[in-house]
Structure formats: structure tokens, C-alpha cells
């Protein structure tokens, strides 16, 4: 709900699927080791050229589910990108 302020963010606009996956994974790991509690991931709302679902949005959803450092995530508030961005809550580093 945006009640926990995000500490770092990443923008995946303009990246290929492979670049976005690698950068998102690296960003989440680095944020976790820096003991961030919440981060912002901007994937955008752009639809692919043939009018199908936004690729980075759906891929980001899948990738975040696979990362062990991620506790939860949800769409951001409008001021932070709305449905084109995600708040990601990270697990606490022990």
C-alpha cells in the first residue's frame, strides 16, 4: 500500500527480456545485502507491438516470485508509477 517508504529503485524500461531479468535479479540481491526493507521496480505499462500483454510486467511478476530474497510485492501507488511499477518487500537479512 506504499506505507513503507521504498529505499532504492530500478527502471527496466528499454531493456531486453534477458537484460531486465539479469538487472532485476542483481538489484534485488544487492538491495537485500544492503538491508533495504522495500524497493521500487518500474517495469512500465507498455503493450507489445502486436497488442498483447506487457511483457516486462508479466515477466517481472514471475521473476520476483522466484527470488528467495523477496517477501512480497504489489502494484505501486499512482505517484510511484501505478500499475507500471511494483513495491517489493524484502526479507530481513540475518
Write the SSE topology.
Layout: E1 8-11, H1 17-33, E2 38-42, H2 55-66, E3 70-75, E4 85-90
Parallel strand pairs: 1-2
Antiparallel strand pairs: 2-4, 3-4
What does this structure look like?
The protein has 94 residues and is α+β, with helices and mostly antiparallel strands. 31% of the residues lie in helices and 22% in strands. The chain has helices spanning 17-33, 55-66, and strands spanning 8-11, 38-42, 70-75, 85-90. A 4-stranded mixed beta sheet has the order 1-2-4-3, covered by helices on one side. The protein is globular, with a radius of gyration of 13 Å. The mean pLDDT is 88.
End-to-end separation in angstroms reads 25 Å
Structural class: alpha+beta
What average pLDDT do the residues reach? Answer: 88
Number of strands: 4
Structural shape:
globular
Radius of gyration: 13 Å
Our count of helices gives 2
- Side-by-side strand order of the widest sheet: 1-2-4-3
Q: Helix fraction? A: 25-40%
- The ordered string of helix (H) and strand (E) elements is EHEHEE
Beta-strand content estimate: 15-25%
Describe the sheet with the most strands.
4 strands, mixed
Low-confidence stretches: none
Amino acid at each position: 500500500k506504499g506505507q513503507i517508504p521504498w529505499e532504492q529503485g530500478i527502471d527496466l524500461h528499454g531493456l531486453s527480456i534477458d537484460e531486465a531479468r539479469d538487472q532485476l535479479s542483481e538489484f534485488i540481491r544487492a538491495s537485500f545485502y544492503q538491508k533495504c526493507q522495500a524497493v521500487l521496480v518500474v517495469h512500465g505499462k507498455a503493450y507489445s507491438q502486436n497488442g498483447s500483454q506487457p511483457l516486462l510486467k508479466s515477466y517481472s511478476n514471475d521473476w520476483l516470485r522466484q527470488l528467495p530474497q523477496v517477501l512480497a510485492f504489489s502494484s505501486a501507488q499512482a505517484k510511484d508509477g501505478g500499475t507500471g511499477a511494483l513495491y517489493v518487500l524484502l526479507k530481513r537479512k540475518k
